[in-house]
Amino acid sequence: MLAHIANVTNFDHYARELDAMHRHRRRIFVDLLGWRALDGPEEREADAFDGPDATYILVLDEDGVYRASARLLPTTGAHMMAELFRAFVDGPPPRGPDIHEWSRHCPGDPAWPAAINEAARLALHMGVLAYALERGVRAFTAVMDRGLLRRARSYGWDCTPLGPPRAYGEGEAIAVLNPVRATHLDMLRARAGVTGSVLVARGDGARAA
Q1: pLDDT in tens, 55-69
Q2: CATH number at residue 108
Q3: Measured distance CA(141)–CA(73) in Å, rounded
Q4: Which residues contact 43 (CB under 8 A, 6 or more apart)?
Q5: How many separate domains does the chain show?
Q6: How far apart are CA 79 and CA 140, in angstroms?
Q7: What pLDDT is stored for residue 33 in this prediction?
Q8: Can you say whether the dihedral through the CA atoms of 107, 17, 184, 180 is positive or negative?
Q9: Cβ–Cβ < 8 Å for 141, 177
């Protein structure tokens, strides 16, 4: 599987895949996880942060079928931690041109075979890390469900807490800072059994900052 960069410079090259992403986000976050705040009549999930500043890492399999995605936002502008989850952070949220926010993490689907989901997760994590290392991003912030901490750490993320777990509509979440390390990417490549980069882009996306 390959991780594709989709951003404002090449959204038109990924129209079908981005639509699949938004529909999958609806399935995962609303239908399966029951996040009521995201519910609505639409068959796609999108919010105010799905704009021109967003970069998406889209995992596609060998047949071009969408399998996983994540949204990356520069913390120098509007992003979820600063705008919606400020209370989850003790002190000011980390911000800067070398810190991005990772949100709308959608790795695989319970309806798919375990082998496909594992390959999709590994490709997504490798793609996010490769994107960061190529563009000088030194860390990612994220607000994640407390129950996902163990899984994130099992994929090599440090997940340094920025505050204690706090309640949200459907459970408890925690704000974290995830440093970017080249050795982490090497570890995931070895785990996935790949030697080269899994990161690609159509059109102009490869040149995006």
Answers
A1: 999 999 999 999 999
A2: 3.40.630.30
A3: 10
A4: 23, 26
A5: 1
A6: 12
A7: 85
A8: negative
A9: yes
